[in-house]
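User: Fold this one for me? It's Ser/Thr protein phosphatase family protein.
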Amino acid sequence: MLKEAPAELKLVVAGNHDITLDEEYYTRIGHYRHRYRTDHTAASATAGKENVGASDEEEGRVESVREIKALWTSEEAVNAGIRYLEEGVQRFTLGNGARFTVYASPYTPEFCQWAFAYDRGTDRFNAPRSTAEGVFVPPNPVPDDGVDIMLTHGPPYGILDQVVGSHASVGCEHLFRAVERAKPRLHVFGHIHEAYGATRVEWSTRNQSMIQCDKETTLEDRCAYTDVSGESKSPLRVGDETLFVNASVVTVQYQAVNAPWLVDLELPS
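Assistant: Here's what I get for Ser/Thr protein phosphatase family protein.
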């Protein structure tokens, strides 16, 4: 599907359900989940070392995980414009001369033993003020500046991250601090399916302005469209605002009915 998409560049970031792309997780527990679970939408694992018989137990094959990742990083994928993003910063130049810097991360706070997880109290996104012994130092913190687009699997705390029922915000507080510090033009994520949508945040006040899309137009265009370019009625004020998009295609019931987002955005040249 991605190969056939008529786009010059297609950026891919993994997430908690991509268990075969997280090598450490897959070799530790993910291969049990992959082989023996019958319901991939269930919240918690139904198989692990504690409930898989000895005759069924088999260590995860690291080479198979690497073969799967190679599908995303192969020459064929690169020639099709596909770029699989590991956690960290990458820079791109488009054919029209536009240049932009992306910070990507597949990691989300631990939830029901899924992949690419970290303890909610662990800060993966901000460099520590102290490097004393015992202080966690994130391998790929978000830079202070220079990031145009952030592409993470999960949302920052308080932005398009509310779950059904309790309406509690379940995004990452550390990620929010990082995005507030970096102030990118655009931050795209998913993970919380029921919080699908887009909003603009003005950093001086933290006010949020939800993007409203006409349903009939969205159906006709087969996408939810917003224009924050310099030619729009309300251009994005770079450094003062960030456009946040929860681009979850599936609903909380895993029905793929949410329209993909199309954003018109000014990029550096």
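One thing worth pointing out: Confidence is low (pLDDT under 50) at residues 51-57.
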